[in-house]
User: Which sequence fits this backbone?
């Protein structure tokens, strides 16, 4: 096929954040529906390539090649097609330019139509392509994609003559309480889409593989239908199916805490009595209320966002296409697989001390709920103290990963650039029933703060620290939590320490006053008055650490100890 034209096609799913977090407390179980929505988004790049291949085969049989080929991929390759909410493909096709362009424009139109008619435009896919003629084609396709993002649904809106059927409002239909987007029958618990997502959420932990197909066989379970060209002769339906893995090993589609398969009826009954949770069926995703119970002290959830710094800068300065591809693939692998591995190996409910001792028998797999992870970022939820440890573990593993990267000869000459790849993170600690959307926003704000204060940092409880200082602050906080728990140090010491800090340092600083000189005499007086002799010198050295604000987080320290030692 040496006479063929080569096209680069790039797609990006848009509306991801809004779409994922559009879940409110309802009958479905937020943890399940949320995870299902995120899964659906994560497989869209694969689904689009799969459908594209099917249409290419129909239109230009034997005259095209598509890379990556969605058909010959293992489960891990299926996941890797998603490059953080999008994909890049190369199509070589032996037909006149005009013919191919018409084909792609039609394809774009069908996709826009699907997203508007089936998902009310809540999600969309921006698609751009260029004929690859020189080395600039890659940056050209990026530029075109940016333009296409600004002209969402333009093909659809140009072609459509009557009002688009955005709202399916009709008699006896009311807004769905779970998504607050679609309408449902008054007699139903939730809308059809939420029902589908709930089913998907229930099945995700039980099946080991997925596919997009036009025909379903006996091992498949149909989950969702992509309807392309609903009416007319071109009508096509593609099914998202889950199936059991054929090999011996059970692949994991998602990494989340699940209800143990060994849980007894009696235990389920006890948990339900103690906590306000609806259903607990063995082998399915654990509800957030139960995950929070595995916290130390106060049962709260931690929301974590982690994102790679300086990536755009590095890609811009990398002229070689292959090196760029390699780096982006390796990063995608880190977030897609390594992050899961850390959650499964280091945060097993049996190996981590959990607040309520019974939980060891009730929760299984991991304590970390990974909502998404891939491309160059991740979002996870977990018991507040475990998610802090998880963040630290991710950063450590990332340092190791960078060392591996620069040992590769492709990247050896640019190791100064690779070393600039760091992580910025944001953490938010909230009650388990708190609205997911708001918690996610706080978490994102915290991450923005880490970026704006110099990157390579993490923000928690409104305080931003470099990773190494965050880790040592958390270590101190753990030690002092133990001292408080063992009754060696009164909890009110931490409380007063915090109050003195807020009154004499934090707020005065905020309002540009100088009161901090009063802080030290008063804190030493507090130490002498409330602490046993043998802890006074440790306390003094703790206070000395606060002299260097950039290296010790007083808010992080105090909030940690107070939350960890709060009686249930
Ligand atoms: Zn709904």
Assistant:
């Amino acid at each position: 096929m040496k006479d063929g034209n080569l096209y680069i096609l790039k797609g990006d799913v848009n509306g991801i954040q809004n779409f994922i977090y559009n879940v409110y407390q309802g009958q479905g179980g937020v943890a399940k529906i949320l995870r299902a929505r995120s899964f659906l988004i994560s497989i869209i790049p694969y689904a689009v390539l799969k459908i594209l291949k099917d249409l290419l085969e129909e239109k230009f049989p034997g005259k095209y090649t598509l890379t990556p080929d969605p058909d010959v991929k293992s489960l891990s390759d299926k996941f890797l097609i998603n490059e953080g909410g999008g994909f890049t493909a190369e199509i070589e096709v032996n037909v006149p330019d005009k013919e191919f362009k018409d084909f792609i424009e039609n394809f774009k139109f069908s996709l826009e139509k699907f997203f508007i008619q089936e998902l009310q435009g809540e999600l969309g896919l921006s698609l751009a392509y260029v004929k690859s003629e020189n080395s600039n084609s890659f940056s050209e396709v990026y530029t075109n994609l940016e333009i296409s993002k600004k002209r969402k649904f333009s093909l659809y809106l140009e072609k459509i003559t009557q009002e688009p059927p955005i709202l399916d409002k009709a008699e006896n239909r009311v807004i769905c309480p779970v998504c607050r987007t679609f309408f449902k029958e008054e007699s139903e618990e939730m809308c059809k889409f939420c029902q589908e997502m709930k089913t998907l959420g229930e099945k995700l932990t039980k099946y080991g593989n997925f596919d997009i197909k036009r025909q379903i066989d006996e091992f498949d379970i149909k989950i969702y239908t992509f309807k392309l060209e609903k009416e007319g002769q071109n009508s096509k339906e593609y099914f998202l199916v889950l199936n059991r893995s054929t090999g011996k090993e059970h692949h994991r589609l998602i990494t989340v805490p699940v209800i143990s398969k060994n849980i007894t009826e009696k235990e389920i009954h006890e948990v339900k009595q103690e906590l306000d949770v609806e259903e607990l069926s063995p082998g399915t995703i654990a509800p957030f209320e139960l995950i929070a119970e595995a916290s130390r002290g106060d049962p709260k959830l931690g929301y974590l966002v982690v994102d790679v710094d300086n990536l755009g800068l590095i890609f811009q300065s990398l002229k070689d296409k292959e090196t760029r591809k390699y780096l982006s693939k390796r990063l995608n692998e880190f977030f897609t697989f390594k992050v899961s591995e850390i959650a499964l190996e280091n945060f097993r409910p049996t190996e981590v001390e959990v607040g309520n001792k019974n939980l060891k028998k009730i929760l299984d797999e991991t304590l970390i709920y990974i909502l998404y992870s891939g491309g160059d970022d991740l979002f996870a939820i977990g018991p507040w103290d475990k998610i802090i440890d998880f963040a630290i573990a991710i950063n450590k593993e990332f340092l190791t990963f960078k060392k591996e990267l620069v040992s590769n000869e492709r990247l050896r000459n640019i190791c100064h650039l690779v070393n600039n790849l760091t992580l910025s993170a944001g953490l938010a600690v909230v009650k388990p029933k708190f609205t997911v959307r708001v918690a996610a926003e706080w978490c994102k704000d915290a991450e923005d703060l880490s970026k704006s204060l110099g990157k390579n940092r993490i923000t928690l409880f409104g305080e931003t620290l470099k990773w190494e200082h965050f880790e040592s602050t958390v270590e101190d906080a753990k030690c002092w939590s133990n001292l408080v728990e063992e009754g060696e140090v009164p909890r009110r010491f931490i409380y007063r320490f915090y109050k003195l800090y807020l009154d004499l340092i934090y707020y005065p600083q905020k309002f540009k006053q100088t009161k901090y000189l009063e802080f030290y005499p008063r804190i030493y007086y507090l130490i002498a008055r409330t602490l046993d002799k043998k802890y006074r010198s440790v306390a003094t050295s703790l206070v000395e650490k606060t002299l260097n604000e950039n290296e010790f987080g007083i808010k992080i320290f105090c909030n940690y100890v107070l939350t960890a030692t709060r009686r249930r």
Observations:
- Residues 173-243 form one domain.
- The first strand starts at residue 5 and ends at 14.
- The first helix runs from residue 16 to 20.
- The pocket of zinc ion is lined by residues 176, 178-179, 182, 190-191, 193-194 (CB under 6 Å).
